[in-house]
Write a structure and sequence with these properties.
Rossmann fold; 12 helices; 6-stranded mixed beta sheet; alpha/beta; single chain; about 375 residues; about 40% helix; nucleotide-binding; transport; ATP-binding; 10 strands; AAA+_ATPase; 4-stranded antiparallel beta sheet
Length: about 375
């Protein structure tokens, strides 16, 4: 009897259990799957003394979700240890894909990516990523303290090491002004910080582990001019002694790099120093000119807006001006009908008087008509 009662109690939940079984299959499929690139694997070569030289040899690549759409088409480039290079081009031309290949989030479809002349596919993934620092366009901060967020770059870092990283990243001054200093909570996704402050924390987190390679993926493109200058200064400090790959949106930030590679449709169409590419007057020169014109237009918009706002000021805000009128143009105090009217200059008074008399006669005639 008790068994049948228990079974009756469970019957309404059988449908829910069936739905849960279907859902858990999808979850377990993800949990039990083994990625092709395993960051926790112990296999692979460990570079204890990485120099940081990079080379791409005839690299072709398509993302797994769009295998028919090639992103990189035979890209070859070389970066010496300690050199600074920039990758520029329109959106979708393959710049950020190279960053993903260096971090080994993906493997190339064809060709080789090597670091210190060793194929990255042969390196231990975890140790490789320990030697690479990344600062992206939108830094990811967690709901913890500033100290905890910076220490995520190197979990064994001491307070002194965190402070030194913040000094290089131009972050120590604003942190000292906070009530709780390094113990200040940043909120979910760093909502308590400005865009420039978040980027400086991200720079400190990237360099605290003293990486040999630094990847900057449009690190200043989302900042205003004032914040950009502060962050750019911090980035230049962080680049010293490191191989640096910069994916640039604002071309004014890459004047001092050793080499610039211009991408178009997944291929390198130009390369050289900033001065060489400007003198060549090719694709890079056209991009620079277009960006300058766009910036000038953006600067004109606030000026025009200010002019419009000033022209639309209310009369109470417009300063009063006393104007003396010559005697022949003085205004009459009131209209002939006895009503206080708009002041009228003497040359116009005659027509105004006739109009007022006509209006008065018309009103009186209307009054008599109604009386009859």
């Amino acid at each position: 009897m008790s068994g049948s009662s228990a079974l009756g109690t469970c019957l309404p939940y059988l449908n829910t259990i069936s739905i849960a079984q279907g859902a858990v299959r999808s979850v377990l499929k993800v949990i039990n799957s083994r990625p092709k690139i395993d960051p926790y694997s112990l296999d692979g070569i460990v570079l204890n003394n990485m120099r940081g030289s990079i080379r791409l040899k005839n690299v072709h690549f398509s993302y797994p979700s769009r295998r028919t759409l090639p992103i990189l088409k035979g890209v070859s480039l070389q970066v010496a240890a300690g050199q600074k290079i920039a990758l520029v081009g329109s959106s979708g031309c393959g710049k950020s894909t190279i960053v993903n290949l260096l971090l080994r989030f993906y493997d190339p479809t064809r060709g080789k990516v090597t670091i210190d002349d060793i194929d990255v596919c042969d390196l231990n993934v975890h140790k490789l990523r320990e030697q690479i620092g990344v600062v992206s366009q939108e830094p990811v901060l967690f709901d913890g303290t500033l100290f905890e967020n910076i220490r995520m770059g190197y979990e064994h870092a001491t307070m002194e090491e965190v402070q030194e990283a913040c000094r290089i990243a131009n972050a120590s001054d604003f942190i000292k002004r906070l009530p709780d200093g390094y113990g200040t909570r940043v909120g979910e996704r760093g909502v308590q910080l400005s865009g420039g402050q978040k980027q400086r924390i991200a720079i400190a987190r990237a360099i605290i582990k003293n990486p040999r390679i630094l990847l900057l993926d449009e690190a200043t493109s989302a900042l205003d001019t004032e914040a950009e200058s502060i962050v750019q200064e911090a980035l230049e400090k962080a680049q010293k002694g490191r191989t640096t790959v910069i994916v640039a949106h604002r071309l004014s930030t890459i004047r001092n790099v050793d080499q610039i590679f211009v991408f178009k449709n997944g291929e390198i169409v130009e390369q050289g120093t900033h001065a060489e590419l400007i003198n060549k007057r090719g694709a890079f020169f056209e991009m620079t000119q277009a960006q300058v014109l766009r910036q000038e237009k953006e600067e004109e918009v606030p000026e025009n807006k200010a002019l419009v706002e000033n022209s639309q000021e209310t009369p109470s805000r417009v300063p009063k001006v006393n104007v003396s009128i010559p005697s022949q143009e003085r205004t009459e105090p009131s209209s002939p009908s006895g009503r206080v009217g708009r002041p009228v200059a003497r040359p116009q008074f005659k027509s105004f008087r006739y109009t007022s008399i006509t209006e008065s006669i018309h009103k009186k005639c209307s009054f008599y008509r109604h009386q009859r």
